[in-house]
Specification:
Helix content is about 75%, strand content about 0%. With about 375 residues, the protein is mostly helical.
Length: about 375
Amino acid sequence: MIDPKVTAKLVEGFVNFGWGHLIMIAVGGILIFLAIVKEYEPVLLLPIGIGCIMANIPVTGMTDAGGLFTILYDMGIKNELFPLLIFIGIGAMTDFGPLLERPRTVLLGAAAQFGIFGTLLMATLLGFDINQAASIGIIGSADGPTSIYVASILAPDLLAPIAVAAYSYMSLVPIIQPPIMRALTTPAERAIVMPYTEKPVSKTTRVLFPIVTTLVCGLIAPMSTPLIGMLMFGNLLREAGVVERLSSAAQNELVNLVTIFLGLTIGSTMSAGKFLTAQTLFILGMGLVAFALDTVAGLGFGKLLCIVTRGKVNPLIGAAGISAFPMSARVVNRVGLEANPNNFLLMHAMGSNTAGQIASVMAGGAILALLAR
């Protein structure tokens, strides 16, 4: 004898299952396909994809009050915990040596944040309020945790499309950036060789860098302190040389576990009722614009440095000023090698790339300082 309650639940599930749910389940499947087959940011797109699929199965209770996804959201997104923990792991995995060897690359990281503010202005003209526009603009930083952190404070209702756009465009760096690089630079500029001479950075400098950066950034943009502080704390674990266990845990166990929870939680916010709207399409489109504008701004400043230094700087390294580390630096190196097989730009681009990480956090902090209440 089948329990009537079980039968009722089965019927309710089928009755509430609509085309919207089917579309979003297909979207989740596409994300999983990109993660496994194309290997686009698999550690993020895979949990996001399966979270999306589960969130669009009716009557599971997972997104209800007290459900698994609601608990994870309240525990890690609503209070900004997950992005901050991930920043500890990112800091522990990042070598700021290329930036310290070439301090001028910090200018390229700063210039590449222009797209954030340009997109913010365009989004306000399209009808988004200032908080929503700022959250959309931050997608251009190509920094997933910062995008989530800012959106969770300023526009939590837009968190799902913003997070998906940020991580999707990060994974598509090898596809999005090269055409922009080729369109805005000449073959001669791309072929400029920047000799790499290693400039040893003392351990004292490496240890002081995260401490000083936290103090300076915190004083300039206090709202950036949680983000920059966790990033630099992770880097201090790496550079101190006396807490290898903690550094290893931050790079592996901590970041892996939090990434799983973060991905599942982001995916769970992609329910059909909230995600399938014209507003979502606008956000995805504006996120791509922000990403492209940041790349354009970085290249533009790179061209300026090329002129100022009389052809000693390859403008391509400006494109690595976004925060997609180290993928953007690798793409820059690849495009440079295409133009000149003797051109090795990786370490120069790494300097811009790591500078972009800090600049994107500073940009997020500045936005929060101006808009957060």
